[in-house]
């Protein structure tokens, strides 16, 4: 099962390494990881996407809560939340394919952020499923390069900390 885990922790050297180490010790693969400061400059939010059993997830959450620098751990998957990912994709296109590409950009609500020599750089943001569907709609041989941020997420409603 896919889990999105949000960890609020003190912004200090080595904290990321200790959190990632817990996943490694349990044999839990990290599919994506995003880290950035919160509105409090002394705290960072780490959003981790991983797949595994509920039992292993429970163990990891318990271990994360034992780390001194961790303030709060939430399994966003089990609550009402908003999640987003950003992807930049360089896609080659002939003039005919360019029309199709422009239609896909409109259908998926994307943005063309750069065009040079019939190479379009497209910005796609949304849930991972949307980004994957966009990629599935593109001829694979036309995809030059992609860069994805990984998932970030936040619970809906009242602040939890």
From TrEMBL:
Residue span, ACT domain: 4-78
UniProt KW keywords: Amino-acid biosynthesis, Branched-chain amino acid biosynthesis, Transferase
UniProt xrefs under NCBIfam families: acolac_sm, PRK11895.1
PANTHER family referenced in this protein's UniProt entry, alphabetically: ACETOLACTATE SYNTHASE SMALL SUBUNIT, ACETOLACTATE SYNTHASE SMALL SUBUNIT 1, CHLOROPLASTIC
Annotated EC: 2.2.1.6
UniProt keyword Transferase present: yes
Subunit relationships: Dimer of large and small chains.
Coiled-coil segments on the chain, per record: none
Swiss-Prot/TrEMBL catalytic activity: 2 pyruvate + H(+) = (2S)-2-acetolactate + CO2
InterPro entries, alphabetized: Acetalactate_synth_ssu, Acetolactate_synth/TF_NikR_C, Acetolactate_synth_ssu_C, ACT-like_dom_sf, ACT_dom, AHAS_ACT, AHAS_small-like_ACT
Record GO biological process: isoleucine biosynthetic process; L-valine biosynthetic process
Single GO molecular function: acetolactate synthase activity
PROSITE patterns in the cross-refs: ACT (PS51671)
Top EC group: transferase
Signal peptide region: none
Gene3D superfamilies, per database record: 3.30.70.260, ACT-like. Chain A, domain 2
Superkingdom of this protein's organism: Bacteria
Protein name: Acetolactate synthase small subunit
Free-text function comment from the UniProt entry: Catalyzes the conversion of 2 pyruvate molecules into acetolactate in the first common step of the biosynthetic pathway of the branched-amino acids such as leucine, isoleucine, and valine.
UniProt family annotation: Belongs to the acetolactate synthase small subunit family.
GO CC entries: cytosol
Pathway(s) per entry: Amino-acid biosynthesis; L-valine biosynthesis; L-valine from pyruvate: step 1/4; Amino-acid biosynthesis; L-isoleucine biosynthesis; L-isoleucine from 2-oxobutanoate: step 1/4
UniProt key word Amino-acid biosynthesis: yes
């Amino acid at each position: 099962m896919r889990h999105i885990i949000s960890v609020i922790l003190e912004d200090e050297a080595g904290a990321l390494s200790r959190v990632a180490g817990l996943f490694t010790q349990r044999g839990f693969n990290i599919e994506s990881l995003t880290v950035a400061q919160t509105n409090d400059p002394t705290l960072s939010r780490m959003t981790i996407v991983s797949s595994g059993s509920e039992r292993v997830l429970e163990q990891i959450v318990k271990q994360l809560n034992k780390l001194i620098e961790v303030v709060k751990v939430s399994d966003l998957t089990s609550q009402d939340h908003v999640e987003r990912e950003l992807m930049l994709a360089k896609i080659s296109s002939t003039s005919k394919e360019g029309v199709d590409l422009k239609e896909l950009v409109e259908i998926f609500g994307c943005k063309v952020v750069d065009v040079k020599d019939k190479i379009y750089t497209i910005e796609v943001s949304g849930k991972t499923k949307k980004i994957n569907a966009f990629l599935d709609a593109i001829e694979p041989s036309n995809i030059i390069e992609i860069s994805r941020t990984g998932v970030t997420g936040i619970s809906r409603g009242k602040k939890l900390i």
